[in-house]
What does this fold into?
Amino acid sequence: MKPLIAANWKMNKDIKESVSLINKFEILIKNIKNVEIVVCPPFTSLNEVNKLIKGSNIDLGAQNMYFEEKGAFTGEISPLMLKDAGCEYVILGHSERRQCFNETNELINKKIKAALKNKLKPILCIGETLEQREKNETMKTIENQLINCLNNINEKGMKNISVAYEPVWAIGTGKNATPQQAEEVHKFIRKLLLKIYNKNIAENTRIIYGGSVKPSNIKELMKMENINGALVGGASLDAESFGELCNIK
Ligand code: PEP
It folds into this structure.
């Protein structure tokens, strides 16, 4: 399966900075064909970045969306608006949204359904906190998040979903999970997918890792059987380091 490497710029980069980053980055990765590369700028930069990556090997994604298509939802962005801005992907359920904006699995499930209905490919984020890991609740947490976020999503929908395992304690902390720690959870997620869906879905769903991924640790992570790519925050804000990250083979 083709690995997916996605950049989550979070609430960084104004339009001018986004243009500068994408212009530098595009040159560095223009010959890469064995990796699917996605960039997720803030909403205000989507349109401009979309114009610059047209015809390139970079796809566009958003960092969040609301589940309604339009109406009185002040401050929200709809799936139709993301499509209009050129998005193919959307990150849903990021731990920062769960923690800072109280997003629940039930809300994330509604967002996934709305994304699929509008032909956006969700990157569903799940992951345990440090407290949950220390209490030996990692697998229970992952199972609960995965089952509830994927409630009533069928095989057809699942074909367009990637799962990002992002241990909360590893995001933006510089402390990445070891390849073995990550692999253990990725393998567990694949087993759950087999239980909920079928062999085809379990084997072909991309399960990507996120949490302090850097050029210095990506190769070891990607050697693991069940790690099919990465979701990258901090290291994606610099063209050279994200360029290096995408050159994984
Ligand atoms: C993220 O934002 O999903 C992330 C993994 O961030 P970082 O790479 O900075 O840990």
User: Anything to note?
Assistant: The radius of gyration is 17 Å. The mean pLDDT is 97. The pocket of phosphoenolpyruvate is lined by residues 8, 10, 166, 171-172, 210-213, 231-235 (CB under 6 Å).
